[in-house]
TrEMBL record:
Residues 181-251 form the Recombinase domain. PANTHER family: DNA RECOMBINASE-RELATED, DNA-INVERTASE FROM LAMBDOID PROPHAGE. One of its GO terms (molecular function) is DNA binding. It comes from the Bacteria. SMART domains: Resolvase. CDD domains: Ser_Recombinase. The lineage of its organism: Bacteria, Bacillati, Bacillota, Clostridia, Eubacteriales. It comes from Acetivibrio straminisolvens JCM 21531. Residues 25-173 form the Resolvase/invertase-type recombinase catalytic domain. This is Site-specific recombinase.
Length: 251
């Protein structure tokens, strides 16, 4: 009697991290915000880097390098290739997206959260190289939790009429809640959140250590030993960071 063999497909989150028999359709997203010579050189370097990286992996097939040149990352309306990337994902053409960093993907925290969730629902991973984050892994869950905390913590406790106004601001990418959120500044002209690159280094460190299982007090002491300061310039992190991580756990 012949035996029936059940075939179990690999999880895409695992397949995006290792070589398997099934080829992944991979795209990269590249963006620079100005036409300055230095940024244009970076633009060309990123395109060459991701093209070579994808083509040299036998488990990957290059779909396209999606690129927006001289376009701000605070909104997605004018980023034609970003929108083309998302549309191609929705049409089932892409399994994995590579990009240099969170800030290259989007400087608008609401947009970042929106598209990460949208892609995750379709089992499409985004890998942010500088932060070493794959959105379909546990570390990616930590990122989503952090972004959720930033964008939702003030909305959920407000009355209906106020909540409507706040949600409208969020959809426009404007700052709601704490104006001193670590890693972000408020753009005075647009009222939107933009990433503070100096503070982003601290946030990435917190992500890394938290994903490794370190608690708030431990990370706080490490930040103090490294000489990092809080948004207000304080050198004491322990209590503040512990409360932040508790909120992250409760989302």
């Amino acid at each position: 009697m012949s035996k029936q063999v059940q075939v179990i497909k690999a999880n895409r989150a695992d397949r995006s991290l290792s070589t398997t028999a099934e080829t992944l359709r991979v795209a990269a997203y590249v963006r620079v915000s100005t036409d300055h010579k230095e940024q244009l050189e970076s633009f060309k370097s990123q395109i060459a880097y991701f093209t070579d990286k994808i083509k040299s992996n036998p488990a990957w097939t290059l779909v396209d390098i999606y690129k927006d040149e001289g376009i701000s990352g605070t909104g997605t309306e004018k980023r034609d290739d970003f929108n083309r990337l998302i549309n191609d994902c929705m049409e089932g053409k892409i399994d994995l997206i590579l990009t240099k960093s969170l800030s290259r993907f989007s400087r608008n925290v609401v947009d970042t959260l929106k598209y990460i969730r949208l892609l995750k629902e379709r089992n499409i991973a985004v890998i942010f190289e500088e932060e070493a984050i794959n959105t379909l892994t546990a570390k990616g869950e930590t990122l989503i939790t952090f972004l959720s905390a930033m964008s939702q913590q003030y909305v959920e406790t407000l009355s209906g009429s106020v909540r409507h106004g706040i949600r409208a601001k969020m959809l426009r990418g404007e700052l709601v809640g704490d104006p001193e959120a670590l890693g972000y500044d408020k753009d005075d002209e647009t009222g939107k959140l933009v990433i503070n690159e100096a503070e982003a280094e601290i946030v990435r460190y917190i992500f890394k250590r938290y994903a490794e299982g370190a608690g708030g007090r431990v990370i706080g002491r490490e930040l103090e030993n490294l000489g990092y300061k809080t948004k207000r310039g304080n050198t004491t992190w322990e209590n503040q960071l512990f409360l932040v991580l508790l909120k992250m756990r409760s989302i």
